[in-house]
Design goal:
InterPro entries: Aminotrans_V_dom, Cysteine_dSase, PyrdxlP-dep_Trfase, PyrdxlP-dep_Trfase_major, PyrdxlP-dep_Trfase_small. By secondary structure, this protein is of the alpha/beta class. It is built from twelve helices and 14 strands. The protein has two domains: about 130 residues, Aspartate Aminotransferase, domain 1, CATH 3.90.1150; about 240 residues, Type I PLP-dependent aspartate aminotransferase-like (Major domain) (Aspartate Aminotransferase, domain 2). Bound molecules: pyridoxal-5'-phosphate.
Amino acid sequence: MFVYLDHAATTPVCAEATQAALEEMTAAFGNPSARHAFGQQAAQRLEERRAVVAEALGCTPEEVFFTSCGTEGDNWAIQAAVEHGRRRGRHIITTVIEHSAVLEPIKALEGKGWSVTRLKPNRQGRISPEDLRAALREDTVLVSMMLVNNELGTLQPVAECARIVKAYAPEILFHTDAVQGFLKVPFTVKELGVDLLTVSGHKIRAPKGIGVQYIRSGLKLSPLLRGGGQERGLRPGTEPTAQIAALSAACRLWMDHGAEYRAHMESLKAYALEQLPARVEGLEIVTPGDAPHICSVSLPGYPSEMLVRALSDQGICVSSGSACHKGKPSHVFAALGLPKRTAMGVLRISFGPTSTRDEVDALADALSAIRSSRVGA
Ligand code: PLP
């Protein structure tokens, strides 16, 4: 039996997305910029797809820009936001638990003289809106705070934080990395009140190589790439129409079945959080996660990398997240202040609409067998 409980890393592409991509690559492969009828048909299809993605985000099609992935979107949002606020100031607020797609571009800006405040989470992995309020300065130009943490599954109070920021100074731009939250937790960009929001297709059963950047209407930003006039001049490069078709099909599927998918993932996660500690001696729950698809557990004394490899040998895929790098716990688990033995034994378990109870049972059995056959470190 093949067990895949790593849906936060990437997801199996759904049949609807595969079919939509195949059709686009074969029957409707025109370049949307071409002036002939075949190109114009591709352009029309592209706009139909944009409208579906806009519906999923709760925004207008003009606010949707297709990118290559979440990493590109995060980098673009951060670069463009600081460029936008350059005359006002050089202070950025973010959190210590962001994905490296946010941490790294901000670190690069810090190296060029920007001042950065990094908010720390509490033991549950949540950022306090009061800490954000206290960090705001006259020269703050950008706040970047993720919606759902990719290792913990915790939901950050983005809407509340965006309200605090806008009440302090409406010119400060608010970006959220919603790569793990999009369609997993219900939201619209208007409810969140953010200026910029980043999405990645491969987390929602579309293929890799497609992302979406939401840019609030009226906000004039500069492009990351320079080239042709695609995406209203803001994201040049011939549009990846097959991936866009697939993304739109995956969005449609989540819009039609999201409530059922979320309930299914939530109940599987509850089952895992009940079964794993009961069946695997010494196993601890690190965070139950607020999002329905992610939780983290630990087998203290058993290094994550060893566990991931031993489980993989038995056909079971879970993740250590970035749980340990060269003998150190990840920045996220380090930020929680967990004991080192717990932090080093963390496993991230993540679910999708196709996950089953049998997969959770197989994971519990395999972990229990590893636990009894090896002495912990
Ligand atoms: N942000 C978060 C929270 C993620 O989990 C990921 C991917 O794991 C990314 C950004 C990067 O997205 P992509 O893989 O599409 O570049």
